[in-house]
Design goal:
This protein is α/β, with parallel strands linked by helices. It has helices at about 1-10, 20-25, 25-30, 55-70, 80-90, 105-115, 130-140, 155-165, 185-195, 245-255, 265-275, 275-300, 320-330, 355-374; strands spanning about 45, 95-100, 120-125, 140-145, 170-175, 200-205, 225-230, 240-245, 305, 315-320, 335, 335, 350. Helix content is about 40%, strand content about 15%. The chain binds pyridoxal-5'-phosphate (PLP).
């Protein structure tokens, strides 16, 4: 056969042409790229970012650190300084350890790569964070999404049945959940942890806005890991996430982590910001207060159903959501349109809690859009 290939290669017209379609895996070709909307000049309430700026003194400190940073050197692969900061602010139970990711998205991918034996299952709920399903496809895992019950609560029986049937290697539960905003029942999650033959990862991306955490329970369950990100707390641009859990798990995952996944600048700036964790938590507190006001304002509108939230965003349902979304955009306010995605989210929109001023602009634009479209 080799001689045939050689001859064909000398005859360009006969040469087998390589294309993405015939070279790439079918799972990848079938994916839709994660879409980020253009936002310049808009009131940006689409991505759960912290809207507040840092105090000038902190910005000056950061400027000095960046000026002095050894960006000609590779970063500390162990990110010791940053890990110490995280350990302190997380109140990590003794004996537990931390693995750092370039955002928590990267940690989801590390976990999936580690367990992706042929036929291995990644299980989550629906609707939830879309990256669980996407990353399952990236690594060739089977994905199972168990529908949430009324009011987006966990359907515990359906979960336990699915876990017994599918024997998942990896279960992801966002706590609070994105895009619904509610936190699931903690006792139900504990039953899921006990029933799952593989790892259960509680994704606490919104911990700063929530009432409860699984970090203190890490030592109680040997198949529990807790994942967090600093993105929603005001560091989305730094790309810093971490996984907390028993060293036995993290040591293995460390082998898969690319050695310099967290750069010099995110390490030093992240560590500095954690020294000022109180400032960020105070900002989160403002966001929680604004959330209450925003919830009341949306609830006051005609024909709108609002879902309770323990995160820094609010999900609501409105007639002709896509028209409303477009109307908001025309008025300079960008939120997230979830209509047309998961059936349980038909006519749903998600708005990030912004500053008082941004929220007022959003409410005014929403009122006007609804009035015009009636
Ligand atoms: C935003 C989000 C993440 C990802 O955060 P990054 O650290 O920015 O990658 C993970 N999980 C949930 C539930 C999120 O909403």
């Amino acid at each position: 056969m080799n001689w045939l290939v050689s001859i064909l290669n000398f005859m360009p017209s006969l040469r087998y042409t390589v294309t993405p379609e015939n070279l790439f895996r079918q799972e990848i070709l079938a994916l839709h790229a994660y879409h980020v909307q253009p936002a310049s000049g808009m009131v940006k309430l689409d991505a759960m970012e912290n809207p507040y700026h840092l105090p000038q003194e902190v910005r000056d400190e950061i400027a000095q650190l960046v000026a002095d940073a050894a960006i000609n050197r590779y970063p500390d692969p162990g990110a010791h300084q940053l890990k110490i900061g995280i350990g302190k602010m997380t109140n990590l139970p003794t004996g537990m350890d931390i693995l750092l990711g370039n955002g928590s998205d990267e940690i989801i991918q590390l976990l999936a790569m580690a367990v992706a034996k042929p036929g291995a299952v990644l299980l989550s709920v629906e609707p939830s964070f879309v990256m669980y399903k996407m990353i399952a496809a990236f690594v060739g895992m089977k994905y199972v999404g168990v529908p949430l019950a009324e009011g987006f609560s966990l359907d515990l029986q359906a979960m336990l049945d699915a876990i017994k049937r599918e024997q998942p290697a990896l279960v992801f539960l966002a706590y609070p959940n994105n895009p619904t905003g509610n936190a699931f029942d903690a006792d139900a999650i504990k039953q899921i942890i006990l029933t799952t033959p593989g790892l259960v990862v509680v994704d606490e991306a919104y911990y700063a806005f929530a009432r409860d955490s699984f970090v203190p329970l890490l030592a109680d369950y040997d198949n529990l890991l807790v994942m967090r990100t600093f993105s929603k707390l005001g560091m989305a641009g730094l790309r810093l996430g971490f996984l907390a859990g028993a060293p036995a798990w993290l040591e293995q995952l460390e082998k898969l982590r690319l050695p310099y996944n967290v750069g010099v600048l995110p390490q030093i700036v992240g560590a500095k910001l954690l020294e000022h964790h109180d400032i960020l938590l105070a900002q989160a507190e403002c966001i929680k207060q604004e959330r209450v006001k925003l919830f009341a304002a949306i609830s006051g509108l005609m024909e709108v159903k609002v879902f309770p939230s323990e995160a820094n965003f609010i999900l609501f349902r409105v007639a002709r959501a896509t028209m409303v979304f477009e109307g908001l955009k025309q008025r300079g306010v960008l939120i997230k349109n979830l209509n047309g995605g998961h059936p349980a989210l038909s006519d749903c929109l998600r708005v990030t809690v912004g500053t008082a001023e941004e929220n007022q602009k959003f409410i005014a634009a929403l009122q006007e859009t609804i009035r015009v479209s009636l």
